[in-house]
Amino acid sequence: MKHLLSIEDLDRVAIERICERAATFASPSDREIKKVPALRGHTVLNLFYEASTRTRSSFELAAKRLSADVVNFVASGSSVEKGESLKDTVLTLNAHRPDAIVIRTPWAGSAELVAGWTDAAIVNAGDGKHEHPTQALLDVYTLRRRVGDLAGAKIWIVGDVLHSRVARSNILAFQKMGAEVTVCGPPTLIPRGIEAMGCEVRYTLDDLPDADVVYALRMQHERMDQAWIPTLREYAAVYQINDKRLLPRQVLMHPGPVNRGVELSGGVVDSPQAAILEQVQAGVVVRMAVLYEVLAGARVGGVRDTAPQPATPEAQLA
Ligand code: CP
């Protein structure tokens, strides 16, 4: 695998391989010395044009735990503020010869564009409303640890599907793993024609008790340029996942950051059903597996055949 731009690039076997490799990184993450030398001598550039807590910190930790050198670039405080374009910024930073670029931007399709400007492996860390593939992978990893095989699992994705790159990546990933996906929200926040992705659509939570997993989405104020719902209070009255709507047997997920009291009540966020902090923990090991995959994959393709060859992580841990 040269790049990770979209979950569409992966089949079930590849998703399982990444999850299994991530699991091999879980034990060093629990040790006093958390590093393995898998990517020693490699440089990972984290290029973030949009706010991030979870994704940015976990990619940085992931690269460091693989012993890569890490350069963190955030648009604010950079020459982007003086008008430098995405292309010129990438070409400038590419002069440092990164082996991988992890990129988050508010622009759909930007990760693919960047892949055309550099030989580095590109990992899409969220491009506008398009995709967030590593979020989907860490969610599959987390769920497999909670419930086992996802084949036949009923997963409801609830909330602002329209503005959500997580929804798009997760619908694809959960279905590739054999789950049945339903999306639910106000009609204004469900994209027209989303049934073509193979998911069911609901506009009420009446059938939510059927779900094994409830995946709530954040209300994405920053991507809303008009009033899509009457008020957040009315949204919460109809769609909030709270202790009256969440059954004890159901697993609750959310990509974060959570708007407490809007899409989730504070009580369910802190409940044992919530896998939200497990998702954050999974972010590090899954992103270690993705960085390992794209860098090793690129060398197999001969793109950077002068780079040092790492032993497999499994061998390094043996
Ligand atoms: N889930 C997610 O992408 O969170 P951040 O925006 O904090 O990275």
UniProtKB/TrEMBL annotation:
Sorted UniProt keywords: Pyrimidine biosynthesis, Transferase
Pathway: Pyrimidine metabolism; UMP biosynthesis via de novo pathway; (S)-dihydroorotate from bicarbonate: step 2/3
Residues bound to L-aspartate: 82, 165, 218
Aspartate/ornithine carbamoyltransferase Asp/Orn-binding domain residues: 152-292
Keyword Transferase applies: yes
Annotated Aspartate/ornithine carbamoyltransferase carbamoyl-P binding domain residues: 2-144
One Pfam family in the UniProt entry: OTCace
Annotated residues for binding of carbamoyl phosphate: 54-55, 104, 132, 135, 256-257
Family statement drawn from the similarity comment of this UniProt entry: Belongs to the aspartate/ornithine carbamoyltransferase superfamily. ATCase family.
NCBIfam families (alphabetical): asp_carb_tr, PRK00856.1
Quaternary structure and partners: Heterododecamer (2C3:3R2) of six catalytic PyrB chains organized as two trimers (C3), and six regulatory PyrI chains organized as three dimers (R2).
Protein's recorded name: Aspartate carbamoyltransferase
Biological source species: Paraconexibacter sp. AEG42_29
Gene: pyrB
